[in-house]
Write a structure and sequence with these properties.
alpha+beta, Ybab, Chain: A, three-stranded antiparallel sheet, 3 strands, about 60% helix
Length: about 100
């Protein structure tokens, strides 16, 4: 192998190592993501984890006067909004890997 070939291979390996390190950092960042969304009226707060799964739910004082059917809709909407926020953050976390 020529000197140029060795230099190219060493540079290639360095770039792969850097990419692996960035990927590990991104993976850690994504797996620790959470988001909490509170309904406009403050009746419901929903927290989701990095998978979009509901990991926390709380009801504010406004929940006392909200009909159950509406309260259920608020839970679903807050959970969906929090999952969308986690997805946005995860996409932004991928930027260093995708050179966007």
């Amino acid at each position: 192998m020529t000197t140029d070939g060795r230099a190219w291979l060493a540079d290639y390996r360095n770039r792969l190592d850097e990419l692996r390190e960035r990927a590990a950092r991104v993976q850690l960042e994504i797996t620790t993501l959470t988001a909490t969304v509170t309904s406009r009226d403050g009746a419901v707060s929903a927290t989701v984890d990095h998978t979009g799964a509901l990991s926390g739910l709380s009801f504010g004082p406004a929940a006392e006067s909200v009909p159950r059917e509406r309260l259920g809709m608020l839970v679903v909407q807050a959970t969906a909004d929090a999952a969308a926020e986690v997805a946005r953050r995860a996409a932004r976390a991928l930027d260093p890997l995708l050179d966007r």
